[in-house]
């Protein structure tokens, strides 16, 4: 989606500039997340091969290597894997917070009827896997893992949809994205409420001070990346020391970033036209360097685009590549290295329960609640989507991976056997869900074309 301007002779230049500036975020989102899914798969494969090779000791020792800072009054030292899971993943959750805020204000969740369809799907996709896991679970020791099958990995899911090309309509990709974002919000709340330790409320009250400052600045439409970084780090440290998982700080800080631009479309078009006209009239075409006049125009253009770009959208755009191409693959590399062998200890019941809850829980929950929302006339099924395709997406939602592994680490932090069992269950459930979901959506797409 982009805007056309029919003001003067520089139309083509303006259209080119605006296409680059106002490209729909969803197109970029799908492209980035699809490639991220491939990188996640590659990192997972490397981690499993590395952990089961002759260099397995180096794999384990690398992630357990302690790094930190300390003094007589302050100590912050952690193994590398916890810097990834608590630190880098806070940026992952920060991005999730930005996406949730955008969707709630101007995206697929900003209207009641628009939001109800993915909302019903997300509720079903969280509740039914949870209930199925608890129903199948027969040990109080593993009951804490009920949150593991609730999550959907949007990167892997969109990567699989990408393989289907035009066999699936764009609205189906939007549906998956919207309900996965709601699913992420649910997972964040579950982590904050149920998977945080004993809370030091005094430290939380201290953390509220910089959070309120950022909230006030955001409310006034004032954004400074330096203050956001400095106060964000302070909030993260206070959350870390308080007992609430520090990644939640990432979500809360994201909610303080303003979404509104400093200038509106009319101001932008009017001034962009003047700048482009000035550049076009500059007589410096055969010289490889810019004139002082052209440099001035370029500075004006940079200042104008900075004012016109939403701070939230700008941050989301810049962070998406780092999260998708670096943070998530590093997380997979550090956490997916399950050691298989004859002496491997696994809790087969926990492993099977997670795999079944991911596949069948998501299938039943997403499909049934979506259908119920439409039947109750609270939600509307998009015209180019049928319930066979919704069922395919529901199966695909069983690809839990990133968030599921993250919750597994929190649920069974002191029990390596349970963590490994949960990871194997997540891998089995995710692989089966991905393959079956792909086949169902491929078949439904061919059926649609055949009609």
TrEMBL record:
This is Na(+)/H(+) antiporter NhaA. Keywords: Antiport, Cell membrane, Ion transport, Membrane, Sodium, Sodium transport, Transmembrane, Transmembrane helix, Transport. One of its GO terms (molecular function) is sodium:proton antiporter activity. Its main location: membrane. The keyword Cell division does not apply. The keyword Transmembrane helix applies. It is a multi-pass membrane protein. HAMAP family: NhaA (MF_01844). It comes from Arenibacter echinorum. It catalyses: Na(+)(in) + 2 H(+)(out) = Na(+)(out) + 2 H(+)(in). The chain crosses the membrane at residues 29-51, 80-98, 119-137, 176-195, 201-219, 226-244, 322-340, 352-374, 386-412, 424-441. Na(+)/H(+) antiporter that extrudes sodium in exchange for external protons. Belongs to the NhaA Na(+)/H(+) (TC 2.A.33) antiporter family. InterPro entries: Na/H_antiporter_dom_sf, NhaA. It is found in: Cell inner membrane; Cell membrane. One of its GO terms (biological process) is regulation of pH. The gene is nhaA. One of its GO terms (cellular component) is plasma membrane.
